[in-house]
Amino acid sequence: MxxxxxxxxxxxxxxxxxxxxxxxxxxxxxxxxxxxxxxxCNDRPMFVTVHGVxxxxxxxxxxxxxxxxxxxxILVAPLFPKDxxxxxxxxxxxxxxxxxDLALNRISDEAHLLTGTNTNRFFMFGYSGGGRQxxxxxxxxxxxxxxxxxxxxxxWDTFPDHRIRYPRGIRKTRKLSNTAFDPAxxxxxxxxxxxxxxxxxxxxxx
Length: 206
Description:
Elements: H1 4-10, E1 19-24, E2 27-35, E3 45-50, H2 57-71, E4 74-78, H3 100-115, E5 118-127, H4 131-141, E6 146-152, H5 183-186, E7 191-194
Parallel strand pairs: 3-4, 3-5, 5-6, 6-7
Antiparallel strand pairs: 1-2, 2-4
């Protein structure tokens, strides 16, 4: 078997300035979109954009690519298809699908191996189900990974309340293993919430 670094560079090799669709080397079913700035990207910060329930990850990558180039950051747009991630907004709480937070961690690790980008703490944007529901909940579980997050058109929140069971609060649940909430840490992550003036409805899913 070829060395992992060889596989990484030979499989849809990233080209600066172009959006590339990739599949994780260790999980070929997991797709994500990657775009490198034209300048040297070693140790550059990473920006992750997470789609909503329409799951239009490529459109996210296309919209943010010019900003990635302007600010010289690595752009990553994970795809969480419905057949594998039916419950991605709650980080796979129901236990009937792949854990999206763990998938994103693997994508982050691969992006680091591919580009040398600094994935210790990255920027994240999430829209609708990918916003307050995934990005915000990811930050509550992995505050050490977050530099700043922006959530747009959020429908539901997870409140820093130990009396309320996750996902409405941060009381532990057996349905989501290996998760520890530290309010002091995740409340220190800068968050910007964007809501349109006509966004007054929410669906029944939290």
